[in-house]
Fold each of these.
Amino acid sequence: VLVKNVPHVPGHSVSDTVNSFFKKNHSTHYLCHQTVYNANKYARAVRKRQKLQNKLDYNQLKLERHPNTRPTRKTGLLGLWGKKVDSIEYYQQKIKEVDEKYIQFKFIILKKGKERK
């Protein structure tokens, strides 16, 4: 059964609020609960990081095959124009940026589970 909008008790976590509500109102039928969070932004960050990691791995293998020339790419749209940069450094920087977002999303999801805003 999916239940939404259980009255919040100030100072208690969402889990504690749901637990006390159902134990009080449906004590004979209540067994347990599982809180569900919207983690779409977190999942997108995970997928984006994986794509960037694949591109980084590809460029590192490319460098291993041809150690004399470092792989480059352009920073513009689809790599068609813009400033030319080292691909390995570029993807390492992009992965660091995504990791920061990844950590923020994870923190937000976990914080919502402990406290209700």
Amino acid sequence: LLLTRIYFFPLFPEINDNESHPSSSHQTLKGTSKWATSLENLLEDPEGVKRFREFLKKEFSEENVLFWLACEEFKKTQGKKQMQEKAKEIYTTFLSSKASSQVNVEGQSRLNETILETPHPLMFQKLQDQIFNLMKYDSYSRFLKSDIFLNHKKSEEQEENSPEAQTAAKRASRIYNT
């Protein structure tokens, strides 16, 4: 235990302040700053997902993030009956040839409804990974340059620098310091 503690504490703590140590500052990032670090961070934030969906809708590819989200939700499903129902819903919405919001993934033609009879939490994982990579290497970089992202970032910065936000911070400081 002692060795572990020595290993994790820096020898020169004054050098490792938040600004010069990326992993420390990474933990304090919020909103658009956090979204810009990775697609994973964007997808963990409900507001980020909302803005990304808004962007993808304009690009006519919202089905990608909807499929990814449905697969994430599917992994948490308990019970064979519920899994069968959700698997069928994912299949008919995103994967079948008649799907209303069909995603374009490799191996899709080999999928058929018989796979839905014996569902398991990771049955869509390969397809979900394909869609994630498509978003990560295609849509995500365009999203970070989009008006939707840049306007949201700008409004966040204005909120942080507004006199109201500073006054609220001072009030909170007074409340907690008394």
